[in-house]
Amino acid sequence: MARQDHRREPFWEAPRVRGGGRRSYRMRAATRRPRAQRQLLQHHRRPFARAHSRRAGEQARSPCASRAFEQPLRGRDAALPNHRRIETALTAPFRQKTGASMKFDIENALSRPEALEAIISRWTPQRETETVPIERSLGRVLAQDCHAQHSLPVHRTSAVDGIAVRSSDFEEGAPNTALWKRGEDFAQADTGDDFPDEFDSVIAIENVTLNENGGLTLPAAYEFKKESGIKRAGSFMQEGELLSRAGDTLTPKLMAILAAGGWSSVPVICKPKIAYIPTGNELVSVGTAPSRGQNIQTNSVMLRACFEQLGAEMIEFGIVPDVREQLGAAIDEALSKADIVIVNGGSSRGSEDYNSELLEERATYFSHGIKAVPGRPIGLAIVNGKPAINVPGPMIAAALAQDWLISGLIRAFYGQTAAPRVKRPAVLDAPLRGRPSFEHLARLVAHEVDGVLHAAPAPNGCTLAQNIREVNAFAAVPAGVKLEAGQTVEIELLDTVDWA
After folding, report:
1. Domain boundaries in the chain?
2. CATH 2.170.190.11: does it fit domain 157-231?
3. What is the pTM of this model?
4. pLDDT by residue (tens digit) across 435-485?
5. For residue 120, what are the contacts with CB-CB under 8 A and spacing of at least 6?
6. To the nearest 10°, the Cα dihedral for 32, 37, 38, 44?
7. Sequence-ordered list of residues with C-beta below 8 angstroms from that of 480, at least 6 positions apart, any chain
8. Looking at 417-499, which runs of residues are DSSP E strands?
9. Which portions of the sequence form the region Disordered (predicted)?
């Protein structure tokens, strides 16, 4: 019979196996515990057994075990049976030290849409407005509907370069224009120009030959149309006409229309402030030559640019080491300054991964884990009425979290929905697999071969730099689904927007 692995079970719950007594399965269970924690648990093993078998629901005799019932337990711990409540109390100092309690729970993990909805449904953004000059409004989001303050053109103007004439002169057919005089029988009228009110039509200059004596000649086949070649008053915009709606992101064209409508400055929603806290003992600042065991903190460069593209402002904190007290202080400061808090790193089960635990301690809502890879160890919290997100440290995982989660929160702040990317069918050159229970967020390299779009994952063994440089497409593969090479699938082209 194959030996069972009981390393994750407390020693008093582990079943006996062939050839093993109490000491053997106790030591197997303790394999992954710090030494001091093993000693403490072994010392109180008998009281644990008494609490479980004789006094379920009552305090155990051990002083340490008694404290398990004196301290209220939160979240999932509140529903634990008594012997597990005792273990929770005894191991709390070690869990705080090692970060080992933030395990990935697939049963309680959320899908990407569920995660975004869980935060947005519990969040009421506190929006403020300000007025900015129209020249500096690119990318800002309007706080109110904007209507034209006047009509344009104010009076009819020429729609073409040509000459302005009286339609009454053409009532009985083409007049003799050879003896016409400028200023009496016609007037110069260029595109957008006003011209004397006695004239009501414009003939394009392409149909006019100016004579040396000042007259002009029209083609024999020319057909005159009354009021042709003009723009009527208000044809550009009517006074009171809606120019742009509240919630619109201002583009160069919208800025020009608003300026034409009389808006020299516009009311906009103040940019959401996003606090970004990079964490990790191994991190050094941009511009520092890394030594052994160090990594350059570059996610702030990437995320700041992403935030600015979406109309948000980053409040960047300095690198915070993996020290609980300093991490907690940084989170509290960030919550006091920002609308959204992003804690980068320390979201998984490393020996110094505290950040999700720190958020959970402060949260009115908390969830850990997303059913998608890369980037599954994401902590989601509402603290003081604000979203606080713990995203993984690796660049690709952080970029994916920004793409679907943080960008979704920024749009929710503005009351907007995401603009879909351009999607195209592509032939897979390599298989794609969704892991059991996990959606696969596949970054792809797409290219055309004989007019047919092909796509494949970035090759195994490529550097991060190659991955970032070459990847230009994306596909979300549902959990458990396998897409074979040669199969045609729909992919999203990165850095595109489908305006259809």
Report:
1. 33-98, 112-123+271-414, 129-151+236-269, 157-231, 423-493
2. yes
3. 0.72
4. 888 999 999 999 999 999 999 998 888 999 999 999 999 999 999 999 999
5. 408, 409, 412
6. -140
7. 434, 435, 436, 437
8. 423-428, 432-433, 439-449, 452-457, 473-477, 482-483, 488-493
9. 1-65
